[in-house]
Amino acid sequence: MPRAYEFPECHLADRLMSIAESRSVQALGAACCSTMGELTGSPVVGLYLLENEEPRLLYSRHVPRGFLDDYAAGWTSCDPILDSVLSAGRAVDGASLLGAYGWPRSALFGLLRHWRFSHNMCGPLRVEGKIIGVFYTATRDVANPYTPLLRQHMEMLCRAGSLALTNMMNAGCLDSGLVSAGNLPSPISPTALHEKLPPRSAEVAMRVCRGRTNKEIAREMGISDQTVKEHVANLCKRFGTRNRTELVGYMLSGIRRQ
Is the pLDDT of residue 166 over 50? Predict the structure, then answer.
């Protein structure tokens, strides 16, 4: 069911970290599947990489083989959801893109309904700012389309997945030919954070990314809960994020905002 479950920020941060730390396609897909299932009630996922601007299936779970075959046969070059993601560079779902009237009357909705799905959502996977793939999910619940909050969570999952794919490419575990040579980003590391932030703030930032609570961080660093809270607030202000969850999504994404 595509509705936003109540997720403690530290729990969502831990889930994002597990995605970002994936070192194989199978591990990445399983982490995305588990997280999406908890967020929406539907664990359906498909990971695609782009090859000559065509999506190539990399991993899928809980998706009927026949649906994948039908999509590959008729939709890889004319999917309006995919076109929107590639042009706008952000997560989108069918109902929000085509509207409450247009979506149920679209051919893509017809394909989904044929295989007993009702809504789908897609987000970009990037390397060095370039979209190299997409992450798809779908639900069978016709009465509950995806919400703006779930699209925001999808953006965060895609950022974490992008970091995992970058690390896999750098380690030679993924076809680097999908990205032009020499165009790979530098993943976020403790060294990079320490260069960008004061030492204590960097230590707090790394622990926040690992999903630690304020109490756990205070205990590990020998400082007060209030001091940790102030560090987190300062980090949010520094990086232009509104809360702890957005802060983790930002730091995992590797995006350098101006």
Answer: yes
Query: What pLDDT was estimated at residue 118?
Result: 92
Banded pLDDT at 168 (limits 50, 70, 90): confident
Fold (topology level) of 190-253: Arc Repressor Mutant, subunit A (1.10.10)
Q: Do domains 9-177 and 190-253 have the same CATH topology?
A: no
In the chain, what are the domain boundaries?
Answer: 9-177, 190-253
Q: What is the DSSP string of 168-194?
A: HHHTT-S-GGGS-TT-PPPPP-HHHHH
User: Does residue 257 carry a pLDDT above 50?
Assistant: no
In whole angstroms, give the CA distance from residue 12 to residue 19: 11
What is the separation of C-alpha 10 from the centre of its chain, rounded to a whole number of angstroms? 16
Backbone angles phi, psi at 179, to 5 degrees: -125, 140
Beta strands in 80-118 (DSSP E): 92-93
Confidence of residue 39 (pLDDT cuts 50, 70, 90): confident
| Per-residue tokens: 31 | 């982490």
**Residue 93: band (very low, low, confident or very high) from pLDDT cuts 50, 70, 90:** very high
For 164, the token pair is: 């995992």
In angstroms, the Cα distances linking 149 to 6, 10, 68, 188 are 11, 17, 27, 25
The sign of the torsion formed by the CA atoms of 50, 43, 30, 70 equals negative
CA distances from 182 to 52, 179, 254 (A): 18, 9, 17
Rounded mean pLDDT, 110-118? 93
Helix (H) or strand (E) holding 54: strand 54-61
| 162 HSE (CA, 13 A, CB side) | 32
CATH code of 9-177, in short, is 3.30.450.40
